[in-house]
Design goal:
Protein name: Cyclic AMP-dependent transcription factor ATF-1 isoform X2
GO cellular component, one term: ATF4-CREB1 transcription factor complex
Helix content: 55-70%
Subcellular location: Nucleus
Structural class: mainly alpha
Number of helices: 2
Shape: rod-shaped
GO molecular function, one term: DNA-binding transcription factor activity, RNA polymerase II-specific
Largest sheet: none
Keywords: Coiled coil, DNA-binding, Nucleus, Transcription, Transcription regulation
Strand content: under 5%
DNA sequence: TCGCCCCGGCGTCAGAGGTC
DNA sequence: GACCTCTGACGCCGGGGCGA
């Protein structure tokens, strides 16, 4: 499902910090190119049909937009969890290194 | 049980930004 | 400039939790 696995703790600190980007998934129709049936419909439709069509497209776009946003937030939450784990591990490592250093100095 | 509040999802509108 | 997609903002609705 998501790219963030949640079990990267010590390595790969900079690896996928660019994850969780909101991006176009390519699910929308291409805007250029050959004439689509949609475009043909829009050309021949009356104003109220055009409005219905526009509302329907926007309805679907809003649904998709919300789905992507939820996915993005979930991805961010996963990253937070991963980074918190990394942070804990690093703090622990630092503590033990300090300990070792102190024993050597004494 | 009822009224209230909160939350999540939905549809719609408006506006920004891209493409032709 | 016309048309398109995407997304923030707004209001509405249904469901669940909670106190009276």
């Amino acid at each position: 499902m998501m790219a963030v696995t949640g079990d990267e703790t010590e390595t790969g600190t900079s690896g996928d910090l660019t994850a969780c980007q909101l991006q176009n998934t390519g699910s929308s129709l291409p805007q250029g190119g050959a004439e689509t049936s949609t475009q043909e419909f829009v050309k021949s439709a009356n104003p109220s049909q055009k409005r219905e069509h526009r509302l329907m497209k926007n309805r679907e776009a809003a649904r998709e937009c919300r789905r992507k946003k939820k996915e993005y937030v979930k991805c961010l939450e996963n990253r937070v969890a991963v980074l918190e784990n990394q942070n804990k591990t690093l703090i622990e490592e630092l503590r033990s290194l300090k300990d070792i250093y102190r024993h050597k100095v004494e």
